[in-house]
Amino acid sequence: MNEYDLAIIGWGAAGFAAAIKASELTNNEMKIALIGHGNLGGTCVNVGCVPSKYLIEASKVYKNLKNPLYAGISGDGSLNFQEFMESLRNFVSDERTIKYENVIKNFKNVDLIKGSAYFKNNNTVYVNDTEIRATNFIIATGSRPLIPDIMGLNNNYYTSDNIWTIKDIPEKIAILGSGEVAIELAYAFSSFGSEVHIFNRSNRILKNFDDDITSELIKSLKENHINFHLGSKIFKINDSGSGETSIQTEDGIYKGFSHILVATGRIPNIDSLNLDKAGIMYKNGIIVDNHLKTTNDIVYAAGDCVDQPIKLETLAGKQGVTAVNNILGGNESIDLHEVPWAVFCEPNVASIGYTEKELRDKNIKYSTRIIGLKNVVKANILKNNSGLAKIIADDENKILGIHVLAPNAAEFIIEGVYIIKNKLTYNDLINSMHIFPTVSESIKICGQSFIRDVSKMSCCMD
């Protein structure tokens, strides 16, 4: 039997962050087991955030080469997709080496153990038929794509785990789902020239955003030649065997798809952990308290395996660190309304704080202001002004939520994080000088719309 101070199950964002933080706080004296299988680094670097953003950014370059935005500029834009995808895979490999494989070598107190762990009892796990006992555990096993039960959906589909193996641009692709992964990959493939169809039984997209944001986004995505089939259940998928697939829905049959991508959500990787043996309760993930402790006092959980509405790499890393701090005597918790969201289509969607729906459900009084990006000079310069900025405030002018549909919104939503975290008002926002011209100025202009008609306001008006 091997004994450790801390055993971490899962070596993705949450597990790695936990191992590094525990090492830092104990001067590399804590004996740590970091247990995992598959590529080091988990979902984000290997099949999630990193390759998807590489794909999106490249697709924008190609689209703008084929369709220049400015008068007097022309270009043809050629594409060797196989060569591009090889560069994507090489980039992922390099980032995994730099950010994970090389980094962990700095922590000699961390033993990497490759294998699948499962609990024997409340303080012992088996890995590769070896018992590992620890004073504390952190479960950080992440999540995997949810595959819906649809007749005919056999092995004829891709997910966000394996779409990176494709060699040719899909001629016509059906994307099942309308969440963040679905929207991002739909945008990328449509920008590369694929005919893209999104199918979802719900009549909306991006369930964590208000309807005014998603309605405007749908308009923008339709301009990028994405077809939406919302509010219609899929009954059957028919594979002709000759490379073409049809999808039968309540509304009819859609034919001629060369590829199917399943992006209907993610489920936690907890099935094989034998949690009952350790006295750990779970439902739609592992149940934790505000300090990330499970129903077993020596076991914490972090990241996508937790029963929580948000699945983000940044949240996973923060929770890994928070779990370690609490194991070492801290009393930390994370307010999920201080966690920023972003979807990296173009324009970006970014959000922080409460949505209107959440406030209505809590019977909290609020007021909103929305400004179109046509009021933002930099958005007009970028020829990308179809978005909006929205601020929600309470009766005392305190800002409760900021939601932006704009170019680079993922880059500047951090301003909203500081505003929400520090409980600032729209007067505080207005009194803060911004750079002109920037798209981030949209947040300040939206704040100014609480006190004046911004259509009667000059540039740089304070």
Q: What is the count of DSSP helices, taking H or I runs of 4+ residues?
A: 13
**Rg value:** 24 Å
The global form is globular
Classify the oligomer. single chain
The pLDDT mean sits at: 96
Alpha-beta classification: alpha/beta
- Hey, roughly how much beta strand do the residues contain? 15-25%
Distance between the termini: 67 Å
The overall strand count is 21
- Would you identify the regions where 5 or more consecutive residues have pLDDT less than 50? none
Biggest sheet details = 7 strands, mixed
| Portion in helices | 25-40%
Put the structure in a nutshell.
This protein is of the alpha/beta class and 462 residues long.
Task: Give a structural overview.
With 462 residues, the protein is α/β, with parallel strands linked by helices. The protein is 30% helix and 24% strand. It has 13 helices and 21 strands. Strands 1, 2, 3, 4, 5, 6 and 16 form a 7-stranded mixed sheet that branches. It has a 5-stranded antiparallel sheet with strand order 17-18-21-20-19, sandwiched between helices. A hairpin with a 5-residue loop joins β20 (388-393) and β21. α1 (13-25) packs parallel to α7 and α3 packs parallel to α5. The model has no long low-confidence stretch (mean pLDDT 96).
Defining key terms:
5-stranded antiparallel sheet, 7-stranded mixed sheet, alpha/beta, 462 residues
